Amino acid sequence: MKDQAENLRIRVLQSSAQKHAKTLAVVSGKGGVGKSNFSLNFSILLSKKGKRVLLFDMDIGMGNINILLGNITQRTIVDFFQKEVSIQEVITKVSDNMSIICGGTGLSTFFTMSETDFERFVNEFSKIQNEYDYIIFDLGAGISKESSDFLKCVDEIVTITTPEPTSIMDAYSMIKYLHFLNEQLPVYIVCNRVQRNNQGRDTIIRLQNTVNRFLEKEIISLGSLPDSRVVLKAVTAQTPFTILNPKADISAALDQLTTSYLSNSFNEEKPVTKKSFLDKLQNFFIGR
Ligand SMILES: Nc1ncnc2c1ncn2[C@@H]1O[C@H](COP(=O)(O)OP(=O)(O)OP(=O)(O)O)[C@@H](O)[C@H]1O
Ligand SMILES: [Mg+2]
Question: Is residue 44 within a helix (H) or strand (E), and if so which, with residue range?
């Protein structure tokens, strides 16, 4: 175990000396609020703006990024663990700047892997993390002990809510849980499925005020996305909405949101000295 940990530390130190991708987890308290559609289309727009993006579907068992893209690949992260193929072999290129890792089925969860699998994952991941500007993790709804260890390690969190009171309440519980895990973790908020003017802004302000009052934490608004029939059409056509209808209201709103995300002060280039996602992940591995 000591040798294993030492090897891992060396590997992570080597990779930390280089510029690494910014890691971002897309989460929600309540299910079905639009995380996967957001993650996919946000990744597409980031890549169209010249960023190199890897979208990692972590909702294993229920993963649907591949379905939303029209089942473009057979490769999944499950092959990485069960067939022991390299990480490169489970990455599918979607366009010049964008690649995906699909969730697949056959593993109950990504987060309860053995120590050997975990070491292999960190080793392999360190080889690819410099090839991207952003690595976006699309997670399932809610949080577990295992996924919370993982969430502590990412650079930023994007929480998706809708204007429904139940969704807002669950988003608050999620943010509270994340805050107790790591107070420093930057949390962005997106309000999806907005039906009227100011509904998104009002929802976000209410959530910001509550978080500020009870947790003394600032959460950053990324903006709102409208409730749109284009989403259902896109899901049915298995084509991302920003590609099916780039001029639709929701595509334009997400484009604006992506531009504002890229210009946010939190989003400045990460100094090389700052602890990387893998630095933090290996601490959990060693500490488990
Ligand atoms: N902006 C929107 N307008 C209209 N419908 C939407 C919108 N966003 C999501 N939906 C609907 O909600 C469904 C679920 O979306 P999605 O799969 O992205 O949610 P999710 O949060 O990833 O779900 P899960 O928690 O199961 O992973 C979509 O298939 C679509 O029908
Ligand atoms: Mg999903």
Answer: helix 35-48
Residue 195 CA to ligand 1 center (angstroms) comes to 15
Condensed to tens digits (0 to 9), the pLDDT of residues 194-229 reads 999 999 999 999 999 999 999 999 999 999 999 999
Question: What dihedral angle (degrees, nearest 10) is formed by the CA atoms of 240, 241, 246, 251?
Answer: -120
- Cα dihedral 255→18→96→66 (10° resolution): -70
The response to whether residue 237 sits with its C-beta less than 6 Å from ligand 1 reads no
- Give the whole-angstrom CA distance, residue 146 versus residue 174: 15
Q: Up-side HSE of residue 280: CA atoms within 13 Å toward CB?
A: 15
- Per-residue pLDDT, 145: 75
Provide the pairing of β-strand 22-27 with 156-161. parallel
Q: What is the mean pLDDT of the chain?
A: 88
| Residue 35 alpha carbon to ligand 1 centre in Å | 7
In this structure, what token pair is assigned to residue 277?
Answer: 């996602």
Q: Is the CB of 36 under 6 A from ligand 1?
A: yes
State in Å: Cα 30 to ligand 2 middle.
11
Distance CA(165)–CA(206), nearest Å, equals: 11
Main-chain dihedrals φ then ψ at residue 285, nearest 5 degrees: -60, -45
Nearest CA to ligand 1 atom 6: 231
Least distant ligand from the CA of 235: 1
Phi, psi at 189, each rounded to 5°: -130, 135
Contact 49, 262 (CB under 8 A): yes
Going by C-alpha positions, the residue among 54, 44, 97, 56 that lies closest to residue 80 is 56
Q: How confident is the model at residue 142 (pLDDT cuts 50, 70, 90)?
A: confident
CA of 118 to the centre of ligand 2 (A): 24
Eight-class DSSP state of 192: E
Q: Which atom of ligand 1 is nearest to the CA of 138?
A: 22
